[in-house]
Specification:
alpha+beta, 2 domains, five-stranded parallel beta sheet
């Protein structure tokens, strides 16, 4: 048969991993990203490998899907942890776009930057083509939808307080998020906040590093991540069920300050009144880098997810896969990368007429894919996030005895299941 052609829509970490995985499987691959940078939310993320995320990353490497993880390790900035996190590291977010573009190009993927997909042709559950920049029709054998679940402006206005101006998406300049699965008719699922409003509020704000007190800045840059206790009167537990990230309740009691390179990240605040922030020693001159509305509100995410099977093929479609937050309530970089390399490889297998790889639940990765897929269809199951690093799924890992820091044991387990390098193998 002729070479399989794969089109990946969305250049966040999930889309990057999917494109590289599909290319390694032997396909011709084109990756479309609407903005001028890759990595999406990862442009302002930084934290990796803490708690159970270490297990997932090492499984990925053993399975043959470690490319993106290894690239992030090449720009490691700090080893450091905030409250209730262990053995994490922080990558330099100022370098991540360049490193990801280089990774994609070196893999042989055709990269289309500033190419916004805006329409799709669907015939009876078979995607025939997509339209790019309102004029170009692109055909492929199989498609992967990885647009994320944040914004665009219409969502942030409808379920938030309008556009809060974030560098990751820049919807006013590049247009709202577009999902080919939703446009083609796939049912859409949303997380719901306690008051019934769809979507979750973004969990982090960024502070201009030069506006921090010199001693605080020096400490953060030395340690990488620090926890600063909030005065009791400024602790707001009501945000716990609103914000999108999975975290411990104790983290709500701190300013968790992380040096991510060009800026300082405050994890878990969601949004924080600037006057109140400046009342805390060390923050007297603080100014928000992002979002510009950081003292008022934050972006809206966890909207427009789609149901899929455990191969990550979208239900009701023959040649459409989903990756990243689009394919369920998984939260975090590692979770998105996992879905990407699974979707990319399986897309090629299905297009080539072969059975997809379904990871067994004995693996942490396979259990996560299956578990979050089940939660999508459980009443109330989408009203929280799931992560290897915190919350319900991390507790599940500990209960099942699969959380470990023994890297050799993680790789040995994958070898024992005869899955070593399975996602690095050519299909066609």
């Amino acid at each position: 048969m002729s070479k399989v052609r794969v089109a990946v829509v969305g250049g966040g970490f999930a889309g990057i991993a999917a494109a590289i995985s599909a290319k390694k499987a032997g396909a011709d691959v084109v990756l479309f990203e609407k903005t001028d940078m890759l990595a999406g939310s990862g442009l302002r993320a930084g934290r990796m490998n803490f708690n159970g995320k270490l297990v997932a990353a090492e499984e990925a490497k053993a399975l043959g899907g470690g490319d993106v993880f290894e690239a992030l390790e090449s720009i490691l900035l700090h080893r450091g942890n905030i409250v209730d996190e262990l053995h994490g590291y922080i990558y330099d977010t100022s370098k991540v776009d360049t490193v990801m573009q280089r990774l994609v190009n070196e893999a042989g993927v055709e990269l289309r930057i500033e190419s916004r997909v805006d329409d799709v042709e669907n015939t009876g559950g078979v995607i025939k083509s997509i339209r790019v920049n309102k004029k170009e029709k692109v055909k492929a054998d199989v498609f992967i939808d990885s647009p994320g679940t944040s914004g665009g402006m219409n969502i942030c206005k409808r379920y938030g307080q309008g556009c809060i101006m974030c560098i990751c998406y820049r919807c006013p300049a590049y247009g709202d998020r577009f999902s080919i699965a939703t446009k083609a008719g796939a049912p859409s699922y949303n997380r719901v906040r306690p008051d019934g409003t769809p979507g979750a509020v973004g969990s982090a704000v960024l502070i201009n590093k030069t506006t921090l007190a010199p001693d605080l800045l020096r400490r953060m840059e030395k340690e990488g991540a620090i926890g600063i206790p909030l005065p009791k009167e400024l602790i707001d537990y009501s945000k716990e069920k609103m914000i999108g990230g999975v975290r411990s309740r104790r983290q709500m009691e701190y300013i968790n300050l992380v040096d991510i390179g060009s800026t300082a990240k405050c994890v878990g605040l969601g949004y924080f009144n600037l006057r109140q922030l400046r009342s805390i020693p060390g923050f007297e001159y603080a100014q928000y880098d992002e979002p510009m509305a950081g003292g008022k509100f934050n972006k809206i995410s966890k909207v427009d997810m789609c149901a899929r099977d455990n191969s990550l093929k979208v239900e009701g479609f023959n040649n459409l896969f989903a990756a990243g937050e689009k394919c369920g309530p998984g939260t975090g970089i590692g979770e998105c990368i996992l879905s990407g390399f699974v979707a990319g490889h399986n897309a090629v297998r299905v297009a080539a007429g072969k059975a997809p790889v379904i990871l067994p639940r004995e693996t942490v990765s396979g259990d996560f894919i299956a578990y979050t897929g089940e939660k999508m269809k459980t009443p109330g199951g989408l009203n929280q996030g799931y992560s290897f690093g915190m919350g319900e799924f991390f507790e599940r890992m500990k209960d099942q005895g699969v959380y470990t820091t023994d890297v050799a044991a993680i790789h040995k387990k994958i070898n024992g299941l005869q899955l070593k390098g399975v996602f690095a193998k050519k299909v066609t």
